[in-house]
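Internal tracking record. Fields below are filled automatically when a chain is submitted to the structure queue. Please do not edit lines marked as system-generated. If the sequence contains nonstandard residues, flag them in the REMARKS field before resubmitting.
Queue: standard
Priority: normal
Entity type: single polypeptide chain
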Amino acid sequence: MIALRSILFNTAFYANLIIRMIVLSPIYFLLPRKKAYFVPKDWARSNHWLMEKIVGTTFTVEGLENIPEGGYILAPKHQSFWDTYALLPWLDDPVYILKRELLWIPIFGWYVAKQRMIPVNRGAKGKVMAQVIERTKLEMANGRQLIIYPEGTRRPPGAAPEYKYGIARLYRDINVPVVPVAMHPGLFWPRRKFLRFPGHFVVRILPPIEPGLDPDVMHATLMQRLEAASDELLIKTAKENPKLPLPATAVNRLKELGAL
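SYSTEM-GENERATED OUTPUT FOLLOWS
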């Protein structure tokens, strides 16, 4: 049954994406940039509905009161494709730093360009990276919210943390709060797998780390707070979803925490 529901959801998910991009393109590209953001935000909401109705997966967002006004860096745990879009409905005007190749995808790339996302050549250094930072500063000066994953890439739930230092440099240069977000969508939408699992999990938005700290201190604080919240939510999610098949990384971490 899980395999069948997963196939149905994956089919509906991609059909939903393609049909919306085609049908809503005239509206999206005619509207001013920020107003046009309702299209991807509504797409995100529809994906939540599809996942609930087809797979049986639901989630709760805690800590919305911790979101500051204006510009800030949102720093979520990154485990799944789910968390690349899931929080869009709760954000005012988010912006991503993303690999430039995404701009080359027909229609999707045009959608991305419309929202002034910040493309980067991952192999570039020096002057090019300095230009990316300047572009990021410009977007953030307009009150946008930068979404950046502190570990850089998707990590399995419970895996040992591998935080990159780039977020500390951005924090220093842009001088805005950093808002950590703990969650475990990878237990229900695993990376590089087509199976989707039913159950419920929590997305926890933590209090912001205010600007002005030494970058090393901010980096250590971010890792400590985010890992502590992640451990707490891993224990909670495992207890509340006893039939959920846990990956080895999650099982090992729960054993380390004395929860198994």
